[in-house]
Structure formats: C-alpha cells, structure tokens
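W.,

You were right to be curious about this one. When I first looked at the sequence I had no strong expectations either way, so I just let the prediction run and decided to look at it fresh. Below is the sequence, 215 residues in total, followed by the output.
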Amino acid sequence: MASNIVLESDADGEGSQQGGVQSVDRALAVLEILARDGDAGVSEIAEEMGIHKSTVSRLLGSLVTREIVHQNSERGKYQLGFGILRLASSIPGRLSLVREARPVLESLAEEFKETVNLAVLRSNYAVNVDQAMGPSTLATYDWVGSLTPLHATSSGKVLLAALAADERERILEETGLPARTQRTITDRDKLEKQLIDVAHDGYAVVLEEFEIGLN
C-alpha cells in the first residue's frame, strides 16, 4: 500500500513536470506567432496551435502579467511587450551597443526631426533595442522591444544585406516573405536585387511595406 502511494506520488510529479514543459512550449509558440505576425487574437492563435481558446487565454494572461505580451486596447489583439526587451537587454554586448549608440540616435533625431531606432538581428528578426524620438507629432509610437520582419523594414533590409549569402538564405527559408501590406516585397529574386542596392548604398528605404502610411 505504501509503495503504491509512493509510486502514485512519483507519477503525479512526472505528470506535473510534463504539463509544465508543455505550457512552456505553448507559451514560446505564442511568442513566435506574435513575433511573426506582429499581433494576433486569441482565436487566431488557438486555431494555428490547435488548442482551445481558453488555454490560449490563460497563456496570454500569464505573459501579459509579466509584460512579455501586451494587449492592444483599441484592437483587442496581442503583441509582444516591453518585457521581451528587458530579457534581451541582459546580454552585456547589447547593453554596450545601446550605450554607445545613444548619442548618435539623439543627434540624428535632432538633425532630421524624425524618430530614430537602433535595431539588431535576433532570432531571425530585427529587434528594436533603443529609440530617440523626433519632434514630429506623427512619430510617437514606441518601437522599443518590437520584433519586426527583416524583409519588410528598412533596418531589417540593412541587416539582411550585411549577412553572408548562406546565412541570409537560411533566415529567409525559415521566415518566408509573408505580406504585411499589399506593398510588401514577397518575391525572393526582387528582394535579393534590392539588397544588392542596399549593400552598395549603405541604407534601405521602405514605402508602406510593413504598415500602411509608414515610410
């Protein structure tokens, strides 16, 4: 009898561990969906993951509590939150980069009267790690902590253009070229030709490829 109780207790512990690992896997899957799509609702996430909406709601609730995910009050959808950057910024090299680049960002924002972002390549996305706000009333969005697609943003294209061909090939194979707007470049050959110009010129330009009205 005692042995049965011990064995049952061990089984429960193992089941609890497996359940915990499953929850972690699902939470990471949610983050990957939000990173890929920019934002998503409970139903969309549940359908893609093949799990019940109530499970997704619980996962999102935990992530929101820790500020890893943020709910857009206007659209009701979820997107990655500032907590992502807090975790990423624990990397010493990145902290040094932000500190060293800060005067440059502020100088550019003052000179060109626009918001200036500092982005790095992380997990196949351009991660905005710092921002200097310009005086324009239109440029008030806080991009810090945002993960943006490489093929649809100017910072992303600069990062892609600087990569070795095989590394760029790997990333684009993994991420694909999903359309964020009707102007997003989704043709691989067309993107590669543009990246040649980006590498030559030292800068990239996007016209409503990531978001309508954003250039």
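Here's what jumped out at me. The longest strand covers residues 125-132. And, maybe more interesting for your project: Residues 2-37 form the longest helix (36 residues).

Coffee later to discuss?

I.
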